[in-house]
Amino acid sequence: MVTTGARLCAQTHRGVAVMPEPNDHLRRARERIESPNATGHPLSRQELADLITQWLYKNGDQNAVIDANYIGKLELGNIGWPQNTLRRQAFREVLGAGSDAELGFRRPRRSRSTVDDVDRKQFLQAAAGVAASAAIGQPRLADLITPTQPTPVPTTIGMADVDEVRTAATAFGSWDAIYGGGLVREAVTAQLQHCVELLNARASEKVRADMFGAVGYLAHVTAFMAFDAYAHDDARRMFRFALSCAEEGDDWHLRAKVLSSMARQAIWCGDPDQGLTFTELALVRSDRLTPTERAMLHTGRARALAKLRRVEDTAAAVGVADSEFSHARPENDPPWMAYYDSAQHAGDTGHALWDTAMHGHFVGEARARLAFAVAGHDDRYKRSKAISQTKLASLVMTTGDPTEAATAGMQALEWSGAIRSKRAADDMRELRRVGERHKNVAEVAELRSRIGAAVVPL
What is the structure's pLDDT at 357? Predict the structure, then answer.
């Protein structure tokens, strides 16, 4: 008899419960690959899920979302044969397998008795009954999947728990950089709520400090997703919570990152003075930060100064940021700074100079930096690539050839297709607005029409 607490789900064959056989082939194939986030450790289930999702997106399935739970079901044998052909190919490509059998995937045998036992009419009637009951206010479909047994919170935690929270934060941060925060924000918020409970568990002083840092990192990711979705009040609360975690864990690196993001939100929301204050706070004891972090913060200062129309101060801040970045050593940076490479630096400084260039200052420099960012961003940072391309198109539309700008804008619109980012959408609206004066140019008219169809007006 299978008990309620059993971790494996029982399958049935002619009414007899049969425990699924674990897929050790798939587990070993995963564990042969080293984790990109934890040297010396095997690839985690979530990391494998991220790689599979990315492969599927690149190869035509933009709607696939593979998670650690699905990988677990495969490894435990609860799912023995992924039905989707492209999905099986993704596993073979990512894990370097020559066949499905090498990964332990076994096509289920069809049994006539199984087919005969299914009362199709009864099944369809039951399904129709669920839909009808939902329509008349009986149990909603969402109620049918609402958990009644929440995941228990351990009373004692160790470094393994810290690593799990960090892995979750990294995975969600990668998703956000590719697609934006609109689609999975609620899921990440739920994950954060669970992880906050871990802060009340017993732990050594080191584990406790590291857990505050890990939860703060996840809170920052959650806050930035809320910011990207224009849930600004949610974002502010989560940023403040992340900052409290950084202070509690005495983590100056996380503190700098959170304050930098708080500055970006304030600037975006039309309060550059507050944004400038946040960056200045983050630069207190800047000797404790890495050159990459200092470059990020001085770039934030430049963006605030540009919004305040302080042109010369903006240029000076960009110069300081460039100087700091020239001394960057990525191996010394915290994990969440991996995104800040030369493309990101060019894009962020280009965005700062964009505000001055739209008024005739440093036009060539702004264009060059934004173009460098577009060329340098790979598929991990699709949102940044699309936003930089849109800004570049708006700048060219305002200061240069409208036909060239329209071509750049069409490319930006194509890249933005799978991204659920309200910031990206707003930049598209701005591009449509600045193109109005060239609306008699055929290419510009076409671009404005396509933006109007793709982006809902405010």
Answer: 96
**pLDDT (mean) for 352-380:** 94
Residue 85 lies in a domain: yes
Which two structure tokens, joined as six digits, stand for 354?
């964009």
> What is the rounded distance in angstroms from the CA atom of residue 356 to the CA atom of residue 370?
14
Q: How many domains does the chain have?
A: 1
Q: Which CA distances in Å does 348 have to 165, 203, 304, 360?
A: 28, 39, 12, 19
**Residue 42: CATH number of its domain:** 1.10.260
Joined tokens for residue 20: 């699924």
Please name every residue paired with 34 in a beta bridge, in sequence order, or none if there are none: 42
CB 252 within 8 A of CB 285: yes
Q: What integer pLDDT is reported at residue 172 of this predicted model?
A: 81
One-letter amino acid at 73 equals K
- Tokens, residue 283: 């630069």
pLDDT band at 176 (very low <50, low <70, confident <90, very high): low
Q: How far is CA 164 from the centre of its chain?
A: 17
> Is position 86 within any domain?
yes
Q: Return the CA Rg of the chain.
A: 25
Please tell me the distance from the alpha carbon of residue 10 to that of residue 1, in angstroms, as a whole number: 10
Helix count and strand count (H, E) for the chain: 21, 2
Q: What is the C-alpha separation between 375 and 369, in angstroms, rounded?
A: 10
First to last CA, the chain: 59
Cα–Cα distance for residue pair 222/186, rounded to 1 Å: 9
Average pLDDT over residues 420-439: 89
- Residue 209 belongs to a domain: no
**CA 5 – CA 323 distance, rounded (Å):** 58
Cα separation of 301 and 287, whole Å?
17
Domain hosting 82: range is 16-103
Backbone angles phi, psi at 425, to 5 degrees: -65, -40
Q: pLDDT over 70 for what percent of the chain?
A: 82
Number of residues assigned to the chain: 458
Query: Do residues 100 and 109 touch, judged by C-beta distance below 8 A?
Result: no
What is the pLDDT averaged over residues 248-270?
95
pLDDT in tens, 65-122: 788 888 988 888 878 888 888 899 999 999 988 888 889 988 765 444 444 444 454 5
Average pLDDT over residues 30-55: 87
Instruction: Say if CB 311 and CB 361 are below 8 A apart.
Output: yes
Cα–Cα–Cα angle for 240, 336, 178, rounded to 5 degrees = 95
| Domain assignment present for 382 | no
